[in-house]
Amino acid sequence: CKNQNSQIGSSENATEQKSDPLPSWNEVKSKQNIIAYVEDVTNSESANFIPVSERIATFDNDGNLWSEQPAYFQLFFAIDRVKEMAVDHPEWKTQEPFKSVLENDMASLAKQGEHGLVKLVMATHSGNTIEEFDANVKEWIKTAKHPTKNVGFDELVYQPMLELLQYLRANDFKTYVVSGGGVDFMRAIVTEIYGIPAEQIIGSRITTAYEYKDGKAVIKRTPGLDFNDDKEGKPLNIQKIIGKKPVFSSGNSDGDLQMMQYAASNSYKSFMLYVHHTDEVREWAYDRESHIGRLDKGLDQAMSDGWTVIDMKNDWKVIYPFELE
Amino acid sequence: CKNQNSQIGSSENATEQKSDPLPSWNEVKSKQNIIAYVEDVTNSESANFIPVSERIATFDNDGNLWSEQPAYFQLFFAIDRVKEMAVDHPEWKTQEPFKSVLENDMASLAKQGEHGLVKLVMATHSGNTIEEFDANVKEWIKTAKHPTKNVGFDELVYQPMLELLQYLRANDFKTYVVSGGGVDFMRAIVTEIYGIPAEQIIGSRITTAYEYKDGKAVIKRTPGLDFNDDKEGKPLNIQKIIGKKPVFSSGNSDGDLQMMQYAASNSYKSFMLYVHHTDEVREWAYDRESHIGRLDKGLDQAMSDGWTVIDMKNDWKVIYPFELE
Ligand SMILES: [Ca+2]
Ligand SMILES: [Ca+2]
Fold first, then answer.
1. Measured in angstroms, how far is the CA atom of residue A80 from the centroid of ligand 2?
2. Are both A160 and A296 inside the same structural domain?
3. Is the Cα dihedral B36, B41, B42, B47 positive or negative?
4. Which pLDDT value is given to residue A13?
5. What is the per-residue pLDDT across B7-33, written as a single tens digit (0 to 9) for each?
6. Which of A191, A263, A288, B160 has the fewest other C-beta atoms within 10 Å?
7. Does B306 share its domain with B225?
């Protein structure tokens, strides 16, 4: 029972005996800041105490809870789907962006920019039912391997962040994913890994349509963008779906800046956390100039406003769960 | 602790000593159906057992959890707002639909149809921040009185439905409001009455915009329809926001039919519940011909598919909580 645990955790005597809630973190500033914050706002004697109903924590996904290099993992899914679906689409052999994908010409695909990507996503993410798409993703994740790490994409989640999610939940925070990635793609994969149920995953999505035929209700995925959950889309979607301002917000790029600002505007004491990719050996190193997960304005505001920035290389003992084995 | 309660409730010996979970219901078919369903799907020995994570219950609001006659309560809010805002809008004295509202000419307002209503809603529901709107609604509900019942609108909730919500939650169902009404209007009023947090209230909404100025993040309400949470909009929004099919669905009009069909398509045993307004003395009596809350096709499908229909007059001992006093 959650409540019992948190009561034990907050009693004074227990403090010293408590086991480390973030064992994969070095004893660094970021870890100290997080723990000091959580202990402060969950202490009913503190002026900064936050009632349980307002303990909303929002986490970006790509590059924040799992890796995002050399491309968003959802793009690898789209590419693999094109190759599978190509049997029924002989025309793709000569049609871009499918031609490039089928010829494994990633340079040519990249040149087609966002327009090419949207075509790719619509072709592979629509035209089926919610259940069919969910099954596609679940089937794919079983065997798909990351091109350079050579492990499953779902193994490339950040162990220290899994511990952070768990730590927050143990302190009665409600943890949400708020990502630019596709919501149904994430729901199919990350629910169990993160311990976050479908209804606490917010993301971008394509349009859908309701059909009722022969006594059967079905929701079909249709080719159109319903919502882009990025930049100002993040606070807007948080207000729309959660209806509360987060008190804890975590991201890794400029696409999270508005969500950070929104959390920072909370009248309760809030915590803004940026993951800075500084580890080119164990993960990847990139920030201000990166085409994926650019962290530039966000880093400036984090520094000027005193938000906490995780230095992956120095702050984390391990990056991935499999390093613990 | 919820889990402990539900364990006690499901142990065999406790069954006979349990107090009545639905005391404001007569011993009728609808009550028996509800209890038989809940006991079946929460019994881990039953073939129909539903895991806690899938126990999603969705409730329409107007005419289902509170009354909706002689007009949706949100319309009374809009009318009262027009009268308040008129000081700053002298032009409204000659401009429709405001002119009719200011002259208390409801017949003339009704003649302007949906077009007039949309104008009224946009003028009174947009142009401010989320917090300002929330404060407006909370201020209004404190003193506003229903035109014929002469009590606060928030007193016109259905006592038997409050008991049902509580009964479902005691059995680890997650209860949601899924309404055609405005989501932020409902969040400001019903959260405490229903025991349903903001993040479990889904509704129609106008568009919003994010602003960041002088280090302050603000969400503004703008004049445009973002989502109409009615008819097929209900299952679409449920899939979008919850990402799970309901197993329990309750409504009172044809606007809920698609949500009912969606729940009926659940592979888990599901329960579809219609409230039929049959009590012209204590509440109102209306169905197939009503301009508000029309229940026609829904009633047909409920009868042909064996869904449970509440006969308000005969099934409920009391309608409103104040009748208990
Ligand atoms: Ca990211
Ligand atoms: Ca209704």
1. 45
2. yes
3. positive
4. 47
5. 333 444 445 557 999 999 999 999 999
6. A288
7. yes
**Same-domain pairing of B188 and B289:** yes
AA letter at A253? S
| Residues A298 and A180 reside in one and the same domain | yes
* Structural domain of A49: 2-69+156-324
Question: Percent of chain A scored above 70 by pLDDT?
Answer: 95
For residues A62 and A231, give the distance between their C-alpha atoms in angstroms, rounded to a whole number.
Answer: 14
Distance CA B33, CA A275 (A): 52
- Reported ipTM: the value is 0.93
Res A152 pLDDT > 50: yes
CA distance A290 to A63: 12
CA–CA separation, B77 and A181 (whole Å): 38
A236-275 confidence digits (pLDDT tens): 999 999 999 999 999 999 999 999 999 999 999 999 999 9
What is the C-alpha to C-alpha distance for residues A219 and A209, in angstroms, rounded to an integer? Answer: 6
Q: How many domains does chain A have?
A: 2
State how far the alpha carbon of B60 is from the alpha carbons of B64, B66, B187, B191, B288, in Å: 6, 10, 14, 14, 18
Which residues does B contribute to its contact with A (CB < 8 Å)?
1, 3-4, 53, 56, 130, 174, 183-184, 187, 197-199, 201, 205, 208-210, 212, 216-219, 226, 232, 235-236, 239-244, 258, 261-262, 264-265
Q: Are residues B195 and B295 in the same domain?
A: yes
All residues of chain B having their beta carbon less than 8 Å from the beta carbon of residue A184 are 243
Give the pairing type, strands A285-286 and B271-278. Answer: unpaired
- Look at A197 and B53 and tell me if their CB atoms are within 8 Å: yes
Say whether the peptide bond before residue B70 is cis (omega within 30 degrees of 0): yes
Burial class (CB in 10 A: 0-12, 13-18, 19+), B99: middle
Q: Are residues B193 and B303 in the same domain?
A: yes
Given a contact cutoff of 8 angstroms between Cβ atoms, the answer to whether B205 and A240 are in contact is yes
Question: In terms of Cα–Cα distance, which of A46, A43, A109, A115 is closest to A79?
Answer: A109
In this structure, the answer to whether residues A189 and A318 fall within a common structural domain is yes
Domain final residue, candidates B124, B143, B162: B143
Percentage of chain B beyond pLDDT 90 is 92
The residue out of B108, B143, B178 marking a domain boundary is B143
> Vertex A263, ends A20 and B128: CA angle to 5°?
160
Rounded Cα distance between B83 and A95, Å, is 60
Interface A-B, measured as beta-carbon pairs within 8 A, has a size of 90
Q: Which residue has the tokens 């405005």?
A: B182
Please tell me what DSSP assigns to residue A259. H
What does the block give as tokens for A192?
A: 């169990």
C-alpha–C-alpha distance, residues B220 and B231, integer Å: 27
Give chain B's length: 325
> Are both A14 and A97 inside the same structural domain?
no
For B97, counting Cβ atoms within 10 Å of its Cβ (0-12 exposed, 13-18 middle, 19+ buried), the class is: buried
